[in-house]
Design goal:
single chain; 614 residues; alpha+beta; Aldehyde Ferredoxin Oxidoreductase,  A, domain 1; Aldehyde Ferredoxin Oxidoreductase Protein, subunit A, domain 2; six-stranded mixed sheet; four-stranded mixed sheet; 26 helices; globular; binds tungstopterin; binds iron/sulfur cluster
Length: 614
């Protein structure tokens, strides 16, 4: 049977050798890993030599779409970008919504693997069969907005573009890959890996047909999907506020990260809510093939001038309440800087909050007070350009900074496995704490945003098996299904488009029938593979893998909330560990969180078992 849904081809570009090759991907491999994160993890496991320096030419950068990317169905314009992370030294990935994903698929490829390092700055140009490595010397040093504009003027409109800014060029360990002045991906430093290869951007255009098993049914089902989304009760509110709509709920539920995750409520939260966003909103834009676009662009004013920027909840919380700023104009300014420089808003917000607390405690001499947006803006610049001693240190990450400074700062460096915690305080949310602890890339909410269910449906302070089972189910759908398809998960999460609809869409695209059991096994396989990657890399770098890596920072266990409806709440260490053990059991991992030999063999990964257990 011919291949449907997948193009079955990935581009292999070696920047040292200046070579471009097309690799046919085996049908069995596609069926086993599907796409996106699954294929990316498989490639990185097989092709990166254990212990590789993430910023060396030997590391590989993978852009990988999935069998539903770019098809006429809800929110299908996403792509995974993955690599060995320079921030965590484990597996890292992110998911960007961009025309680039659709263009790449229509050019005839499912992904790109980039290896080596160019001698001088380059960008990659893809137009169907034509693939070229071009000079980017004229682009180096430009911010991400200028780069987009310049490339668009050179290539013409209609090309998909992903690029890095100065943060990626300067190898800031949490530089992201940016696109379209408001889309970002690869929190664990995928932008730095791109910079280490002297790769400024990739542009793509394609007008080939993606082969489909049953095109007519797919188009029909896709159209039904779009209309179901529009008819959803949640649609109007979503279209008004997008992800920022959750901020008010976070405050009410006492989970809004405040003063470096010291508190879950912020006195000045009214200045940064979705309602304020609505007032400042100029226009909305979003990813391709989406009819619930959520890129809300606001016009704002600060002393530095009047500008426009695109806001999401995570950005607002981490550059707002987390650093003591209750004015959306000021938050927007910081967000704009982060986007232009191409640095992760969550990580930089965490770094600023950490610096403010270090300053308050007198651990550093720099004076950076809570809520001072000018100082915060300066710090973003110092980090991006590695200008001051503090900027240089923070550019390596908060884990690094805490280790360097000591004096108890490790307990309030808010990260798991080196990746800063995204915007949910967990003093009073043990299930969400476990979601951060067990996320495959470090502390990110992408894989299991259990917090709303935990608070609305369960006894929020309970540590029980039910929560762990729900967490695994969420990871299977969010981290397994959506990260491999590769499409946006928000139609399901935000407006209730049933995830089961993707079974049919998958069948019409590929001819392959899937079910929840398939997704469960797929996710177990991918999660175990990714965990094996972490264990292998840590070992190769001389570190023993310990279950402690799956435990959030001491602050949440030791320092209770001092205000709000959850005043006095903190996590319980023994009970957290109990949940962690149940989690390991469900995934088939041992008491240290390492996939057992039997689990790996059962999942069809005997070669991984050999490496891990030889
Ligand atoms: C994502 C993380 C998030 S998660 C946000 S806001 W969010 C931050 N966005 C940043 C930004 O913007 N600029 C910047 N310089 N840094 C940023 N870092 C932060 O990165 C995003 C949406 C959102 S908005 C979310 S939740 C959903 N994420 C999805 C996902 O992960 N997978 C998937 N299949 N669908 C998803 N849909 C939603 O996409 P990372 P985007 Mg993102 C400006 O990258 O590394 O995964 O971290 O992709 O195109 O911007 O869409 O309240
Ligand atoms: Fe992109 Fe938002 Fe649409 Fe998802 S819902 S595809 S993030 S615009």
């Amino acid at each position: 049977m011919p291949l449907y849904g997948w193009n079955g081809k990935i581009l292999r570009i070696n920047l040292t050798k200046k070579s471009v090759k097309i690799q046919e991907v085996d049908r069995d491999v596609l069926a086993k890993f599907v796409g996106g994160r699954g294929l990316a993890a498989w490639i990185l496991w097989n092709e990166i030599k254990p212990g590789t320096d993430p910023l060396s030419p030997d590391n590989k950068l993978v852009f990988m779409a999935g069998p539903l990317t770019g098809l006429p169905l809800p929110s299908s314009g996403k792509i995974v970008v993955a690599s060995k992370s320079p921030l965590t030294h484990g597996y890292g990935d992110g998911n960007v919504g961009t025309k680039f994903s659709v263009s790449l698929r229509k050019a005839g490829y499912d992904g790109i693997v980039i290896e080596g390092k160019a001698k001088k700055p380059v960008y990659i140009f893809i137009e169907n069969e034509k693939v070229e490595i071009k000079s980017a010397e004229h682009l180096w040093g430009l911010d991400t907005f200028e780069t987009e504009d310049k490339l668009e003027s050179e290539t013409g409109k209609g090309f998909g573009i992903v690029e890095i800014g100065p943060a990626g060029e300067n190898l800031v360990k949490y530089a992201v890959v940016m696109s379209e002045k408001g889309r970002a991906g690869g929190r664990p430093g995928m932008g730095a890996v791109m910079g280490s290869k002297n790769l400024k951007a990739i542009v793509a255009h394609g007008d080939r047909e993606i082969p489909l098993f049953d095109k007519e049914s797919l188009v029909k089902k896709g159209a039904e999907g779009y209309s179901k989304i529009k008819q959803s009760d949640a649609y109007d509110f979503w279209m008004r506020q997008g992800t920022t709509g959750v901020l008010r709920w976070c405050q009410e539920a006492s989970v809004l990260p405040t003063y470096n995750f010291r508190e879950g409520v912020f006195d000045e939260y009214e200045g940064i809510t979705g309602e304020v966003l609505e007032k400042l909103k100029q226009f909305t834009k979003g990813c391709p093939n989406c009819n619930m676009i959520c890129g809300h662009n606001v016009r704002f004013k600060v002393d530095e001038g009047e500008f426009i920027t695109e806001l999401d909840y995570e950005n607002v919380a981490m550059l707002g309440s987390n650093i003591g700023i209750g004015d959306l104009n000021k938050v927007s300014y910081l967000n704009l800087l982060a986007d232009k420089f191409g640095v992760d808003t969550i990580s930089v917000g965490s770094a600023i909050g950490f610096a403010m607390e270090l300053s308050e405690r007198g651990i550093i001499k720099d004076k950076i007070e809570w809520g001072d947006y000018k100082k915060a803006a300066e710090l973003i610049k110092d980090i991006t350009y590695k200008k001051t001693k503090l900027g240089k240190m923070l550019a390596e990450g908060i884990e690094f900074t805490a280790k360097k400074l000591g004096k108890g700062s490790e307990s309030f460096a808010m990260h798991v496995k080196g990746l800063p915690i995204s915007a949910y305080d967990c003093h009073a949310a043990p299930g969400m704490a476990l979601a951060y602890g067990t996320s495959p890339i470090g502390a990110h909410h992408k894989d299991a945003w259990i917090i709303m269910r935990e608070i609305k449906q369960y006894e929020r302070h309970a540590y029980n098996k039910e929560k762990v089972e729900t967490l695994v189910w969420l990871q299977n759908l969010r981290g397994g299904l959506f990260e491999t398809l590769t499409t946006c998960r928000l139609p399901w999460i935000e407006v209730g488009y049933p995830y089961e609809e993707y079974y049919d869409l998958f069948y019409f695209a590929t001819g392959m029938k899937i079910s929840y059991e398939f997704i469960q096994e797929l996710t177990n396989r991918i999660y175990s593979l990714i965990r094996a990657f972490w264990v292998r890399e840590y070992k190769a770098e001389g570190k023993k893998w310990l279950r402690g890596y799956d435990i959030p920072p001491a602050r949440w266990f030791k320092e209770p909330l001092t205000k709000g409806p959850e005043k006095g709440a903190k996590l319980d260490y023994d009970n957290y560990n109990k949940m962690l053990s149940w989690y390991y059991e469900l995934r088939g991992w041992n008491e240290n969180g390492i996939p057992t030999k039997e689990t790996l063999e059962k999942l069809g990964l005997p070669e991984v078992a050999d490496v891990l257990w030889k």
